[in-house]
Specification:
The complex is a heterodimer of chains A (313) and B (326). With 313 residues, chain A is of the alpha+beta class. Chain A contains eleven helices and seven strands. In chain A, strand 4 and strand 5 form a beta hairpin. The N and C termini of chain A lie far apart (77 Å). Chain B is of the alpha+beta class and 326 residues long. The chains are: A alpha+beta (313), B alpha+beta (326). Chains A and B meet through helix 2 and helix 10 of A and helix 2 and helix 10 of B.
Chain lengths: 313, 326
C-alpha cells in the first residue's frame, strides 16, 4: 500500500517539478516601442492587438521571418496597459528587451525617461505617463541587481501616486502600497526617503479653515520626517514646511488673540528656519529660510497674507 | 577756504546723480503693499506696488507709534503690455522694503524670488508670480552686484523672461515656420548681459544654451537641413561649453537629430544615412560618458543615450512626424 502510494505520487511530483522548472526558464521581457501583436511571425500576418511600451511580456518561443528575428510572447492581463486577459502572439524582436539584453536596464530606463518627458510636454504622446510608469516598473523586475532598480521602482511608484492624486480629486484615494513597497524593498535608501515624503501628503489636511490644529499637526509631521530622514533630498524642504507652518500659526494665534501661543510659534518657526540655514548652506532653502526669519522678525504676516492673495503653501 | 566749501556744496547740489550708487539707499519690495500719501494707514492711498518693484531711492525713514515707515520712490507699470512705467513717491511700511542696507538683503530677496517662482509653477499659484520672481531676481543683481548670489539671480531673471517670451512666441502662427528668421526672435538682451557680466561661469553657459532656441527651426517639414543645422549647433555648444550643466543634454540633442537624419535619408541616400548613423552613435556615446548616473536631481542623459544607441543598432525609428518639434 505504501509502495503504491509512492509510485502514484512520484509522477505527480515529477510533473510539478517540470512545470516549476519550465516557468523558471521562461524569459521575461518588455517592449520599448509600441507595436502590434501578430498571429504568426511575419509582417504580413494578422494583427491581433496593439502592445504598449513597458508591457510585461514572457517569451515563449523565438523565430525568424522577413529576414529578422521574431519572438512569440504571452502578455499578462494588465489594467494599466488596458489588457483585459492574457494574450499570446508574435512580435518583431528588435524592440523587445530581456534580462539578457546588454545594458538592458539602461535602455528600458532611458525609454522611461523619454516617455516621462513626453508626458510633461505640451502636445506630448497620449498615454506617455502610463508608458513611463510601466517601463520604470520593469527595471527592478527584469534587472533586480541593476543600480537603476531602486530609482526605477521609486519613479514608477511616484508616477502612480501622482496619477492617483488626480483620481483622488475625483473621489478615489491614491494607493499607498507601491510607495510602501519601495520603502520595504530598499530601506535606508534615497528612494525610500522620497517615498516616505510622498506618503506625508496623505496625512495633510485638505483645508485649514483658519484653525490651528492642522498646521500644528502638519508642522510636527514635517519636523519628524526631517529628523528621521536627515540624509533625504527632501529633508530641507520638510524643515522649511515645518517652519512655514509654525510661521502661519503665529498669525492664526494672533488672530485668536492668544499672544503666548503666537510668540511660542514664532520662536519655534525661527528655530526650525535657523536649523534649515545650517543644514542647507548651498541650496535655495537657505535664502528661503533667511526670508522667513526676516518676516518673522519684522512681523510680516505669512498666513493671512497668503489667504488674502488666495494662495496656500 | 570759504570758497572751497561753497564750491563743494554747489557741486553736490548741482550733481547729486554723480554720487556713487552705493551711497543711495535702494532696493525692492518683498510683498505687495499699498503706498500712502503720508506715513499713516488711514492716509490717502496712492497705489498698490507688487513684489520686486524697483525702489530706486529710499528718501527717508520715520517711526510713528510702533510702525516704521519708509518714504520711497517706486517704479510701477503704466501699461503692462507696452511695458511702460512711471515713478511715484509715497510711504510704505518699512518692513516690506529690502534695501542695500538691509542685513542679508540679498538672501531675503533671493528667498522671496524662489518662493514666487514656486508659486508660479504650482497649480492655482499666485497670479503673476513668475513676473514677481523675475523682478526680484533682477533687483538682487542690480542692488547687490557683489553678492555671491548675483550671477545666479541675473540668470534666473533672464531665464524666466526667456521662458515667458518663448511661450508667447509659440502661440503665434509664425512659430511653425521652418526658417527661424521668419519669426520674431526672443529678446536676448538679458541673456547677453549674463554672459557679459558673469563670463566663464555656469550662468553664462546656461544663458548660451537658452539662446540656441532662437536658431532652431519652428518645424522640420521632413527636410534634412533643419536637423543637420540643429545638430551642428548643439554639438558646437557642447564643445565650447564642456563644463556646462547642459553639455550632456546638448550632446544628446545633437545625437538625436543625427538619428532622425538616419530615417530621413532612408535607403535612397545610404552613404549619408550611414554617416548620420555613425555620427549619432559617436555623439550618444560621448553623451553617455559625460553624463552622471541617473538621479532625481541630475540629468538622465546616460540611459537616454544608451537607449538611443540601442535603437540605432536595431534600426528602430526615432523620428516621427509627431516628434517633429522635439
Amino acid at each position: 500500500m505504501v509502495t503504491h502510494w509512492k509510485i502514484l505520487t512520484l509522477p505527480i511530483l515529477l510533473a510539478l517539478l517540470t512545470a516549476t522548472a519550465f516557468s523558471a526558464d521562461k524569459e521575461r521581457a518588455t517592449l520599448i516601442r509600441e507595436d502590434s501583436l501578430y498571429a504568426s511571425a511575419g509582417a504580413n500576418a494578422q494583427k491581433l492587438s496593439p502592445v504598449g511600451r513597458g508591457s510585461d511580456l514572457t517569451i515563449l518561443e523565438r523565430g525568424n521571418a522577413d529576414g529578422q528575428p521574431w519572438v512569440k510572447i504571452s502578455m499578462a492581463a494588465d489594467q494599466q496597459a488596458q489588457v483585459s486577459k492574457e494574450v499570446t502572439g508574435w512580435l518583431p524582436a528588435k524592440a523587445v528587451i530581456t534580462a539578457s539584453t546588454p545594458t538592458g536596464d539602461q535602455i528600458v530606463f532611458g525609454q522611461a525617461v523619454d516617455s516621462e518627458h513626453q508626458a510633461e510636454e505640451r502636445g506630448g504622446r497620449k498615454g506617455a505617463a502610463q508608458d513611463a510608469l510601466r517601463l520604470y516598473s520593469r527595471v527592478p523586475e527584469l534587472f533586480p541587481g541593476s543600480p537603476l532598480a531602486p530609482e526605477g521602482m521609486w519613479r514608477a511608484a511616484d508616477i502612480r501616486w501622482e496619477l492617483g492624486k488626480a483620481d483622488f480629486r475625483a473621489g478615489k484615494p491614491p494607493e499607498e502600497k507601491y510607495l510602501q513597497e519601495v520603502i520595504a524593498k530598499f530601506p535606508q535608501s534615497k528612494q525610500a526617503d522620497l517615498a516616505a515624503f510622498d506618503l506625508l501628503e496623505e496625512k495633510m489636511c485638505p483645508e485649514w479653515r483658519g484653525q490651528a490644529d492642522c498646521p500644528l499637526k502638519e508642522s510636527a509631521l514635517y519636523e519628524q520626517y526631517a529628523h528621521e530622514h536627515p540624509q533625504s533630498p527632501k529633508a530641507a524642504e520638510a524643515l522649511y514646511n515645518a517652519a512655514w507652518r509654525q510661521a502661519a500659526l503665529v498669525d492664526i494665534y494672533r488672530i485668536e488673540n492668544d499672544n503666548a501661543k503666537s510668540e511660542a510659534a514664532r520662536k519655534k518657526a525661527t528655530t526650525l528656519a535657523q536649523e534649515l540655514q545650517r543644514l542647507s548652506p548651498q541650496s535655495d532653502w537657505k535664502p528661503r529660510a533667511v526670508d522667513l526669519i526676516y518676516k518673522l522678525d519684522k512681523k510680516i504676516p505669512v498666513f493671512s497674507a497668503a489667504v488674502d492673495a488666495g494662495e496656500m503653501k | 577756504m570759504k570758497l572751497r566749501i561753497g564750491a563743494l556744496l554747489l557741486a553736490i547740489s548741482l550733481f547729486p546723480w554723480t554720487m556713487p550708487a552705493q551711497e543711495k539707499e535702494q532696493g525692492t519690495l518683498i510683498d505687495e503693499v499699498t503706498m500712502y500719501v503720508s506715513p499713516d494707514l488711514t492716509a490717502q492711498k496712492l497705489a498698490r506696488a507688487t513684489r520686486g518693484r524697483d525702489v530706486p531711492l529710499v528718501m527717508e525713514h520715520t517711526t510713528i507709534g510702533n510702525q516704521a515707515w519708509a518714504h520711497v520712490l517706486v517704479v510701477v507699470d503704466v501699461d503692462r503690455d507696452r511695458e511702460t512705467t512711471r515713478q511715484i513717491s509715497g510711504w510704505v511700511p518699512a518692513k516690506y522694503v529690502v534695501s542695500n542696507s538691509t542685513p542679508n538683503g540679498d538672501q531675503i530677496i533671493f528667498g522671496e524670488a524662489v518662493d514666487s517662482e514656486q508659486q508660479a509653477e504650482q497649480r492655482g499659484g499666485r497670479k503673476h508670480a513668475a513676473e514677481d520672481a523675475m523682478r526680484l531676481y533682477y533687483r538682487l543683481y542690480e542692488y547687490f552686484p557683489n553678492s555671491p548670489l548675483a550671477g545666479e539671480a541675473l540668470w534666473h531673471s533672464a531665464d524666466i523672461r526667456w521662458q515667458l517670451e518663448k511661450a508667447d512666441v509659440r502661440m503665434r502662427p509664425s512659430s511653425r515656420e521652418m526658417d527661424p528668421n521668419l519669426r520674431v526672435p526672443i529678446d536676448d538682451e538679458n541673456m547677453k548681459l549674463v554672459m557679459k557680466k558673469f563670463p566663464h561661469t555656469k550662468w553664462s553657459d546656461l544663458a548660451a544654451y537658452d539662446m540656441i532656441d532662437n536658431k532652431l527651426c519652428g518645424s522640420w517639414k521632413g527636410e534634412t537641413k533643419c536637423p543637420e543645422k540643429e545638430s551642428e549647433l548643439y554639438e558646437k555648444y557642447a564643445r565650447e561649453h564642456p563644463e556646462s550643466p547642459k553639455a550632456a543634454e546638448a550632446l544628446f540633442n545633437a545625437a538625436w537629430r543625427q538619428a532622425a537624419l538616419v530615417q530621413m535619408y532612408g535607403a535612397q541616400h545610404d552613404k549619408e544615412r550611414d554617416k548620420a548613423r555613425r555620427k549619432a552613435t559617436e555623439l550618444a556615446q560621448e553623451a553617455a560618458s559625460k553624463a552622471p548616473e541617473a538621479s532625481a536631481t541630475g540629468g538622465d542623459w546616460k540611459p537616454r543615450a544608451m537607449e538611443l544607441i540601442y535603437t540605432l543598432q536595431q534600426g528602430i525609428p526615432t523620428y516621427t512626424a509627431e516628434a517633429d518639434h522635439k
